[in-house]
Hints:
This protein has a 6-stranded mixed beta barrel with strand order 2-3-11-4-10-9. The longest helix has 17 residues, at 248-264. The chain folds into 2 domains: 6-163, Acid Proteases (Cathepsin D, subunit A, domain 1), CATH 2.40.70; 194-373, Beta Barrel (Cathepsin D, subunit A, domain 1), CATH 2.40.70.10. The protein has 6 helices and 30 strands. The two termini are 21 Å apart. It is mainly beta.
Amino acid sequence: MAPNDLRSPLSRRPDHGFVANISIGEPAVYQLVLIDTGSNIFWIQCYPCQKCGDQNQIPHYDVDKSSTYSKVSCDSWMCREFDGQCNEWLECIYISAYIDYTWSRGIVSDDTLHFITSDNEVESVPNVAFGCGTYNYGDEFGYEYSGILGLGPSKASVMTQIGYQFSYCIGHIKDINDSYSHLIIGDEARLEGDSTPLEIFNSSYYAMLDGIRMGEKLIADKKVFSSQPKDGGGVLFDTGSPVTYLHKEALELLSAEIKSYMKAGNIQQVPEIKTGGLLCFEGRVSEDLENFTEVIFHFSGGADLAVGPDALFDQSRQRVFCMTILPTSANMSILDHEAENLTIIGISAMQDYNFGFDIKEKLVYIEDVDCKTLSDYD
Length: 378
């Protein structure tokens, strides 16, 4: 029987997202891995390492010291799920690349993962396939986190290797003392709140938007978001993206409404020539936007995601704040896939919400909740 109650606290990493604390091997060694619903592969830096980031604060995972470590056969179905290639030593070699031009390369392997359960017991899951990264390129690898936990829907994902449900509650991302954000994998995942249909396309999770409101005003209707995932549209939930992306028409409508709101409140826009094209304003979010109207994303099926000023704007300088929603065209990896009508919900828009994914029923649950009230993860 598959494990049904695997948990990890989530810790914030500035400018990146949240990391899970998961242990691997025997004896167990803890690792901090960035949770990423926008990718599928779980990989960590492995030692001995040929090119690894400086990992001084996080223990090294040394494959020679784990009695449960083994390499995945290069002619196995799991190697194919990783898009692996056989090398001259018949090892299965994977490559995982990301939109910020970071990447990891190494050997597809398996080992035992260790999680905490709701009653504070340790539950071990043997023979979980992962990427044992020995060539890793990225400034944050090692320092901020030791790998990436891809939670996508492919058969290579840890999530589908273990079960078909997971949830994560994201607290206030600007609170460096947040200790209530958490991840649950298995049947005990929290599936509460309103749901929206989930479509799996190209090994990614998609939903559809019915519109965007600002307060009571509908500023972008269902027709604006009519493109399906197969046509380069739809909505991706991506915890690995710090910001949210909207396609051109939707962003222009939202930006115009925000500009109008700011003008009515005598909040001056910073000329875009000075901001590199970002939509920025003079002032402080905490002082000038106390009464700001929420931007509400309406998903098909009735689920709503309300984004307040702390999630919508970033205090980039002492007296300047900028919108954290960018045009889809700013994401070069999206352009490569001709998905110019795609919307990506990034981690900043997910704060103060619990997201529950039920892969078998093809539903995503979106719940407005204080993670502190779920601190016992029940």
